Amino acid sequence: MATKTKARREDLRLKLIDLAEAQITEQGLASLRARDLAKAGECSVGAIYNVFTDLNGLVLQVNGRTFQRLGKQVASAITDMETAPACERLIALSHAYLDFAQNNYRLWNALFGIKMTSDSNIPAWYQTTLDLLFAHISKPVSEIFPEFNAADTQLMTRGLFSSVHGVVLLGLQQRASSAEISRMLTLILSNISQNKVF
After folding, report:
1. Of 83, 28, 84, 18, residue with least CA distance to 51
2. What's the distance, CA 24 to chain centroid?
3. Which of 101, 103, 131, 194 could bridge 108 with an S-S bond, Cβ 3.0-4.6 Å?
4. Out of 1.10.357.10, 1.10.150.750, 1.10.3720.10, 1.10.10.10, which CATH number does the structure's domain 59-192 have?
5. Which fold has domain 1-52?
6. C-alpha to C-alpha distances, 136 to 91, 192, 197, nearest whole angstrom
7. How far is CA 44 from CA 34, 134, 175, in A?
8. 63-89 pLDDT, tens per residue?
């Protein structure tokens, strides 16, 4: 009996993640409502909160999927670039990031719309997913700045990610052309390789 209950709970968990992902894809994170999910999932609102502590926990699951897809896309952008200069790999990563954001705008935007604080209990699997994404950036960063210690490499990696994200976000919000955003990213990251401040 306990096994059947656990199986039903897991089925509902996966169903709710699928429904939430579809809702965010179609209408954005702000449209997500427990009552609507319950209706679509043919369950009670209380059943949702028996599976997830709150909607943030559900969105975290959706975001985990999105980060995995994003990680695969940026990784594929540099699959055949092992011997390419670090700067070129960073540019390829940034362009892959832009492409993902354009083609998955609402899901991508939801990655940064979730309410999280410094003391939030981030699941280990979620942090691992993020670490894998940042690892693609930190490798070329460590090649460009070999004098950096591990802590500074990590800070530079996150700083570059934040910079690229900002350019992509503002560019898409202001409806800049893909070519213009790509060119901006290329200029910024090209100068990074020359140790210039931007």
Report:
1. 18
2. 14
3. 101
4. 1.10.357.10
5. Arc Repressor Mutant, subunit A (1.10.10)
6. 12, 16, 22
7. 9, 39, 40
8. 999 999 999 999 999 999 989 999 999
